Amino acid sequence: MKIEDVKYIPFSKFLLTEKVDDITRYLQLAAEFGCSVEGEEIYNDFQKDLEKTVDRFQKLVLQQKDEEEPDEFDKILQLRPDGPRKMIENIPEDYMERLRGAFYGRMAGCTLGAALEFQPIEAMKAWAEYFGDDFPLTDYWSRIKDPLAPHYVTAKKIDLTKGNMDAVPPDDDTIYTLLGMLTMEKYGTEFTCSDMGEIWKEYLPLGIDEDGAPGKRGCWWGERKMLQNLWNGLTFPEAGLKGNPNLQNIAAWTRADSYGYVFPGWPEKAAEMAYKDASANHRRNGVYGAMFMAATIAAAFVVKSPIEAIEIGLTEIPRNCMFAEAIRWALKQKITNYQDAADITWKKYEEMFNGSAITNAIHVVMGLMIGKTDFTKVIGETIAMSGDNDCTGATAGSIAGAIIGMKNIPKQWTEPFNGRMHIYLKHQPEYLEIEEVCQRLKNLAEKFRCK
User: Fold this and answer.
1) DSSP symbol at 157
2) Which residue, 393, 424, 383, is CA-closest to 176?
3) How far apart are CA 306 and CA 102, in angstroms?
4) When comparing pLDDT for 252 and 154, which is higher?
5) Contacts of 350 (CB under 8 A, 6+ apart)
6) What's the CA gap between 19 and 50, in Å, rounded?
């Protein structure tokens, strides 16, 4: 499918939001006018109608088929262009150097982007000017908006700033990397969606505030919906699909890094593992995005150029899918900075959701095109493009780090972590040592390479 074939339905986000706000006010007004029982009946009818509408949309999208964008793994394989599949037989000699670079690169990019996630470029520039920071960033933020606001269950926003972090701050995009590792440790390469779901239920909290107060959630969007469905007794595939409009969003490829880490130089296998993971609650381009990123990261362990890794990543997804079209388009653009990159991306994909797998992947690719092997420039320019920029910063940092290795990442990005990461997983300690995590990933890489 091509983006030119997509016809978006016109609607007003403001109008929808305003009407929902009207309903909440009418509920309060009904109570104040002494008719709360009748008001509750009207609200219950409204809620049932909403659920019917969501079900209708879900049935509509899931019944659509496109021969160039299949969901079935065997059909995806048939539509791939030629590629190296397995670039080396054994793990690289410099594997640990590159793995540390990739892992620390992911942690750094995520931490930098999380401070002002989804903020418009103009807002980020204004905050940087106000704080006295460079923009694009060349170090962690010196200060932050709403510093005492909660951040992922156990932290506060201030923990994301220079001089106030004692480890990698907690974030769902760092936790997903650990969940992939935990899944492979327990179930190996043959894990199923159900196996992955058991890992999520065992380790991932929905959050302290189950009503979903900002900062208290352990996961967002389709991942939170999937976990809720699992706890409500649903099984796959329904658990990943029911009430989930995020089938082509970014989250699946933010979960893909661990598969690239464990299968260095083996993009085909990394993509296969990412497919198993992503298809739990994504479809079509949401899944292809995860396969592409896993394959790209796997290739980054044995090449010297991020563009070469990206081109190899494209060989593991359907050649004519919308995601592949977008990456090929991005690679052809002549851009020199974040503003140009953002402007041309949103001119072409102006109607797409800001959390899309496609637009955010373009940001990663363009950040790597601009920064190449300059780690600071890669994550700084990527994050400056806005979007889901803790995710994009993390993945761009992961790819760049795998290519250049730990020794070539400037120390301002790694030393503040003190060699450890905060986590909020159940049945796990408050911190994990990064070196221990890297060793566990290496153990998996060696184990699976022997099979």
Assistant:
1) G
2) 424
3) 12
4) 252
5) none
6) 13
Tokens of residue 120, six digits: 């418009």
Length of the chain measured in residues: 451
Q: How far is the C-alpha of 239 from the C-alpha of 231, rounded, in Å?
A: 9
- The CA-CA-CA angle for residues 333, 345, 282, to 5°, reads 115
Res 391: pLDDT? 97
Measured CA angle at 49 (ends 45, 51), to 5 deg: 115
Query: How many other CB atoms are there within 10 angstroms of residue 448's CB atom?
Result: 17
The two structure tokens encoding residue 325:
């079209």
Distance CA(320)–CA(155), nearest Å, equals 43
Contact yes or no for 137/380 (Cβ under 8 A) = yes
- SS3 label, residue 413: helix
Q: Does residue 51 surpass a pLDDT of 80?
A: yes
What are the Cα distances from residue 202, in Å, to 107, 219, 369? Answer: 23, 14, 39
Counts for the chain of helices (H) and strands (E), in that order: 20, 4
Per-residue tokens: 296: 């790209």
Number of Cβ within 10 Å of residue 413's Cβ equals: 23
Q: What is the pLDDT of residues 283-306, one digit of tens each?
A: 999 999 999 999 999 999 999 999
The mean pLDDT value for 304-332 works out to 98
Residue 287: both structure tokens together: 């899944």
The tens digit of pLDDT for each residue in 54-110 reads: 999 999 999 999 999 999 999 999 999 999 999 999 999 999 999 999 999 999 999
**Continuous segment of H or E residues that includes residue 420:** strand 420-422
DSSP assignment of 244-271 equals ---TTBTHHHHT-HHHHHHSTT-HHHHH
Residues 6 or more apart whose CB falls under 8 angstroms from that of 343 comprise: none
The yes-or-no verdict on residue 265 having pLDDT over 90 is yes
* Alpha carbons 312 and 302: distance in angstroms, whole number: 11
Q: How far apart are CA 349 and CA 343, in angstroms?
A: 10
Joined together, the tokens standing for residue 48 give 């049932």
Q: Is 306 exposed, middle or buried (0-12, 13-18, 19+ CB in 10 A)?
A: buried
pLDDT confidence tier of residue 234, bands split at 50, 70 and 90: very high
* Whether the predicted model's global pTM rises above the 0.70 cut: yes
Residue type, 321: C
Identify the CA nearest to 400 among candidates 102, 191, 179, 153: 102
Q: Residue 179 corresponds to which tokens in the numbers above?
A: 């969940």
Instruction: Please give the C-alpha separations between residue 223 and each of 164, 243, 252, 259, 303, in angstroms, as whole numbers.
Output: 29, 11, 9, 18, 32
Tokens for 73, please give them. 């793994």
